[in-house]
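#struct-help
A.M.: can someone run this one for me? Single chain, 232 residues.
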Amino acid sequence: MNRNRIVVLLALSMAISLNGFAQKLDKTAADSLYDYLIHSPSVDPQTKLKLAKDLEVFSRSTKDSCRLAQLNGMKTNYYDVLGHLDSSIASGQLALEYYKLGCDSLILMFINVNLTSTYLSLGENDRVIEMVDRNLALWNDKWTNTKSKNSFYTNKAIAQVYKGDFEVAMTTFKELRANAHKEGNWVGEMDAYNNISALFGMFYSRNQEIKSYLDSAEFYVKESLHIGKRLG
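D.P.: on it. Structure tokens below:
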């Protein structure tokens, strides 16, 4: 076990067992715990929310506006997953207030993609589509290997499905597949294939005379399975 991992585990232990955790952090432990939050998706959102709040207190003490923007972007997601949608929106708005010139532009994209997820949970489909289009128009093609762009496409496509715009959603899912392939995001590409297959299944359920819909659904499932086999 490397030193950074030990620091992370010690920090996590402190977070769970001690009161006044934020006051006990130093920069090294805070940075390690921040990295842990970003790269440990299997941790439950309630625990992540607690840690993000503690790190937020520490980051306010160091006046790290960019870190505060990122942490509140995280809280936007955690609250959404937990079903606390008002708190999710409030965290997203606070994240945008903390974001300033000089912060990594991808932090802004991260905040906005999490806000679109919350608006999707609220059923504000037109708002989701408008936000996604606005952010994708600002996207710098030099930003590669990021989850945010794929998430924008996904949220837009889901909003279109909710609106009943299935053909338009198909186009968006195909854009997602192309972007994921370009970035070498095999999991994203596999998810896109599965969603495209599901849409063809929906097309068939609406018009069972067109058997080619079933053929297409089967084709895209097989494409997804091929990627899954490559991933092991």
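A.M.: thanks! The chain has twelve helices and no strands.
D.P.: also worth noting: Residues 145 and 185 are 7 Å apart (CA to CA).
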